[in-house]
Design a protein that fits this description.
single chain, alpha+beta, three-stranded antiparallel beta sheet, 2 helices, 3 strands
């Protein structure tokens, strides 16, 4: 089986949603395809907002739910989205 990125997996699932009915297709949060896409999106790291640097760590706000996050965490404890602490803007 070929490796694919989360973004590629989301696109494949969305194609399966065509003709299916939830926000992607209409069933909303009860649709298994919607839930799969939501879970994959949470695994895609997002840059936090308003990074503050102390002597020991960085803190910021989660871009999704605005919860305080710290750079020694891989993700937000509130919404479970992955956090991208890298220095690059890309």
């Amino acid at each position: 089986m070929a490796n694919m990125t989360n973004e590629e997996a989301i696109q494949k699932i969305r194609k399966k949603c065509e003709g299916h009915d939830c926000g992607f297709c209409g069933k909303g949060n009860n649709c298994e395809l919607y839930l799969a896409i939501s879970a994959l999106k949470k695994q895609i790291p997002k840059k936090p907002r308003g990074i503050l640097q102390s002597q020991k760590f960085k803190s910021a706000r989660c871009k999704i739910c605005n919860e305080v996050v710290f750079d020694y965490w891989k993700g937000c404890p509130e919404c479970l989205n992955a956090i991208d602490w890298s220095e690059s803007n890309g």
